[in-house]
């Protein structure tokens, strides 16, 4: 309902501005009327660099509404997405592969099941306003994959070198991620959207350098016998160095999360964490691209796709209430092959591992591995189908393991 109300509101604003509709197939707005719309400011000049994740709505899709004076542009964009999933093991999350959910040991049993969903459907709005001192850019994008069926993906404003709002964390590596039917990407990948303030400038060797302060709620595992209050006093500090070359793209990111809380006795607890991630693409290899990413650190499990939401950033010792920040690492390697202008395939291997404190139970998650192969076909302009087969395993601290398989098909149309 909120997205519908916002849509109606933006439409009324567009009409009040006496706009003229222009589809993506029409002529591009003139250079002297409005700057080209992009997403993520990482350059020192007025141009904006795009930081799209795989399967994001293309920049040339949408309904463009331009004011008569050429100062304002509204872009309405959306994507209808229909997902079909067949699992060999009953898993809670259907939109993404999650090795954490795979049952192990005596809990493992096969239970074939089928699922359909439209949660990946998206709706978004972008507004660009031309001023004498530079363009002001605002973006709002939503989908229906939230806990209550509605979720804000991006909501931010951008002016010059500054960005304010929610979008991809600088610690994320979405620019070097291969396309997957599951929304979060390969096992071991780093992706998270956070509320943030970001500053971007030109870095050494003609690279793009960005700094940010971000908010992301720590995920803490607390035993039933212990009461701990958690909050954030100092925001996460992030940085990213990125450079596009003749052979592809590389980027290195860092984060320093400061975790704070208070025990039942009133003791104030503060624990700093850290994280580093490195990703790259190698593009001119025959008819395809290679993708690579590796990351590791303490108190950053919420950034790993398979471990998000499991309370593993901090694990509280039930014996003395002392918080432990387990070390986590992961990564993936993938190859994309272009069969033609409208058909490509990916083969991806990913893994993630957490070093469990000695006090954790023997059945605690230790490592996850996934293998997947997919093919995407551009049926017609804006419409695509993706089919994916994956096998993924969980290994526990005591050596117990379980393996699940999934076949999934995604149909979508970006307008």
Secondary-structure map with pairings?
Blueprint: H1 2-16, E1 20-23, E2 63-66, E3 72-87, E4 113-117, E5 122-131, E6 134-143, E7 151-159, E8 162-168, E9 193-202, E10 208-214, E11 220-221, E12 228-231, E13 236-244, E14 248-256, E15 258-263, E16 268-272, E17 274-285, E18 288-298, E19 314-316, E20 323-324, E21 327-340, E22 343-354, E23 365-380, E24 383-396, E25 401-414
Parallel strand pairs: 11-19
Antiparallel strand pairs: 1-2, 2-3, 3-4, 3-5, 3-25, 5-6, 6-7, 7-8, 8-9, 9-10, 10-13, 12-15, 13-14, 14-17, 15-16, 17-18, 18-21, 19-20, 21-22, 22-23, 23-24, 24-25
What does it look like?
The chain is mainly beta and 415 residues long. The chain has a domain at 82-117 and 161-414: Porin, CATH 2.40.160. It is built from one helix and 25 strands. The chain has a 16-stranded antiparallel barrel with strand order 3-5-6-7-8-9-10-13-14-17-18-21-22-23-24-25. The longest helix is centred in the N-terminal third of the chain and has 15 residues, at 2-16. The two termini are 20 Å apart.
């Amino acid at each position: 309902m909120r997205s519908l109300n916002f849509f109606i509101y933006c439409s009324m604003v567009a009409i009040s501005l006496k706009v003229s509709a222009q589809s993506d197939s029409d002529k591009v707005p003139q250079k002297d009327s409005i700057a080209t719309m992009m997403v993520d400011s990482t350059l020192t000049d007025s141009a904006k660099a795009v930081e799209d994740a795989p399967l994001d709505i293309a920049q040339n899709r949408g309904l463009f509404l331009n004011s008569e004076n050429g100062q304002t542009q509204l872009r309405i964009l959306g994507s209808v997405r229909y997902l079909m999933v067949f699992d060999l093991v009953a898993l809670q999350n259907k939109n993404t592969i999650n090795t954490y959910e795979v049952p192990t040991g005596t809990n493992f049993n096969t239970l074939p099941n089928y699922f359909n969903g439209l949660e990946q459907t998206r709706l978004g709005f972008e507004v660009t306003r031309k001023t004498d001192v530079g363009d002001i850019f605002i973006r709002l994008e939503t989908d229906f994959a939230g806990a209550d069926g509605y979720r804000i993906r991006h909501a931010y404003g951008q002016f010059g070198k500054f960005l304010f709002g929610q979008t991809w964390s600088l610690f994320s590596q979405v620019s070097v991620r291969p396309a997957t039917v599951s929304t979060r990407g390969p096992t071991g990948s780093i992706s998270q959207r956070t509320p943030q303030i970001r500053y971007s400038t030109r870095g050494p060797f003609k690279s793009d350098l960005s700094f940010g302060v971000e908010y992301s709620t720590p995920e803490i595992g607390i035993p039933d016998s212990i009461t701990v209050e958690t909050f954030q006093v100092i925001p996460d500090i992030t940085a990213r160095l990125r450079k596009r070359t003749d052979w592809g793209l590389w980027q290195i990111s860092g984060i320093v999360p400061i975790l704070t809380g208070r025990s039942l006795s009133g003791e104030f607890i503060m624990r700093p964490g850290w994280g580093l991630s490195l990703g790259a693409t190698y593009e001119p290899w025959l008819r395809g691209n290679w993708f690579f990413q590796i990351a590791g650190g303490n108190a950053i499990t919420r950034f790993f796709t398979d471990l998000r939401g499991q309370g593993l950033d901090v694990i509280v010792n039930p014996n003395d209430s002392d918080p432990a920040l387990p070390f986590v690492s992961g990564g993936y390697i993938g190859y994309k092959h272009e069969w033609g202008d409208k058909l490509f395939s990916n083969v991806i291997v990913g893994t993630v591992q957490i070093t469990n404190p000695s006090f954790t139970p023997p059945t605690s998650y230790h490592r996850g591995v996934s293998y997947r192969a997919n093919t995407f076909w551009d049926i017609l302009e804006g419409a695509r189908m993706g089919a994916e087969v994956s096998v993924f395993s969980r290994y526990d601290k005591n050596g117990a393991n379980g393996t699940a398989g999934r076949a999934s098909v995604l149909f979508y149309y970006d307008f």
